[in-house]
Amino acid sequence: MAIFKKLKGETDLRVSIIGLRMGDRVLQVGHNDPRLIALLAANVGLSGQAAALVTDDAAAETITRAAEACGVLVDVKVAPFRTPPFAQGWFDVVVIPELIGTLRPHERVGALQGAQQVLRVGGRCYVIETAPRGGLGALFSTRSLDPHYRTQGGAEAALRAEGFKPVRTLAERDGLLFTEGMKPDVAQL
After folding, report:
1. What is the pTM for the complete model shown?
2. Chain segment 66-112, per-residue pLDDT in tens
3. How many Å apart are CA 114 and CA 32, to the nearest integer?
4. Which domains occur in the chain, in start order?
């Protein structure tokens, strides 16, 4: 289709690992990677829905421009991560790229609780973040992670603490770490 011409044939490791299907409903939390939501939107197609949740109008404009440049539809909402303005259980997948480790603990809890609220039972939450660096790379890293985030278990511990089950690290590749958590049925808790 002409609407997807700029993204046709383009593959991205992040999109491959997430494994979206046509018709899925996907939400990206945060604006650190506006191109990612455009790629996700292209994968769910017109029969699915792609949305982004950001906390300010400038971020909304950035994502809207990226989606328009790629010729895809993205529903962008401005609201706190803790209280997403979407129906409870609406999304099949929530993607949180390069965000969780940079938030303060209470913001992190709120973002993950908001993600769980909008996920359907059996829905998946993906946390994508830069893999920890060792050696000299760690000394010169300019990332501003919460200093206790990694020592307390990183994304796996954060997802488990908010009730996601099962939780697992899917891969560490190309400098990225992929962690997945599933929203359990209330009976499984």
Report:
1. 0.86
2. 999 999 999 999 999 999 999 999 999 999 999 998 899 999 999 99
3. 18
4. 2-188 (3.40.50.150)
